[in-house]
Write a structure and sequence with these properties.
The protein is of the alpha+beta class and about 190 residues long. The protein has helices at about 5-15, 25-30, 30-35, 60-75, 170-175, and strands spanning about 40-50, 100-105, 110, 115-125, 130-135, 145-150, 155-165, 185. It is globular and about 35 Å long. The structure holds a DNA duplex (16 and 16 nucleotides). InterPro entries: WRKY_dom, WRKY_dom_sf, WRKY_plant.
Length: about 190
DNA sequence: CGTGTTTGACCAGCGC
DNA sequence: GCGCTGGTCAAACACG
């Protein structure tokens, strides 16, 4: 199966097995409302099919983020506010693993995406002054991982990469019956 | 005491 | 083979 098609379903039909881009919020609220509710902006995200290239999420981000933010701030109610932000990576490998990365303007590195994560590592990476944090989903039998790091080009942005697919519902969505991937800045995790 | 974080050590992959 | 780098492990630690 194509994992990219899964990603496309996720972006167009809210069937993302992973949390994320709170597109629903985009389509139903104004920028001001969003800014009031959330102190971050989703600025970019990338769906991967197969092999993931680390550089993709930071490559040329300055230019793209400008475009994205202009879109976001100027035409939020347009029909395709995110269309230009979806990028398909070449399928360079045969791995079936689902990977999904996006870039968020946020003061906080940790997004409360409804899932429960356990931090298992922190590493300084080459060519970046900021450490990369490694998380695993704590749900039993779920091996989804995510990496979180600040954009080396613009520390105001946080790059989050999800790897794998959740085999369960978001606990938060069960409790609150809300979109499971609605992101919220979290102060409960450090 | 249970749960989650920190952090140094370890391992695997890759380029030379 | 060796060194570099990214990713993971696990013991120690912190906290409620």
């Amino acid at each position: 199966m194509s994992t990219f098609s899964t990603a496309m379903n996720a972006t167009s039909h809210y069937q993302n097995p992973n949390p994320n881009p709170n597109q629903a919020a985009y389509s139903s609220t104004t920028t001001d409302q969003l800014n009031e509710l959330l102190d971050f902006e989703l600025s970019d995200y990338v769906a991967f099919d197969g092999e993931f290239e680390e550089e993709i999420s930071t490559r040329d981000t300055a230019k793209r983020s400008e475009n994205v933010e202009n879109n976001f701030n100027g035409s939020l109610s347009s029909s395709t506010p995110l269309a230009s932000n979806i990028r398909k990576e070449k399928n360079l490998g045969t791995k079936d693993e689902f990977r999904f990365a996006f870039r968020t303007k946020s003061k906080l590195e940790i997004m409360d995406d409804g899932f429960k994560w356990r931090k298992y590592g922190k590493k300084m990476v080459k060519n970046s002054p900021n450490p990369r944090n490694y998380f695993k989903c704590t749900s039993e039998g779920c091996s989804v991982k995510k990496r979180v790091e600040r954009d080396r080009d613009d520390p105001n942005y946080v790059i989050t990469t999800y790897e794998g697919m959740h085999n369960h519902q978001s606990p938060d969505s069960i409790i609150h019956n809300q979109m499971p991937w609605t992101l919220q800045p979290s102060s409960s995790l450090q």
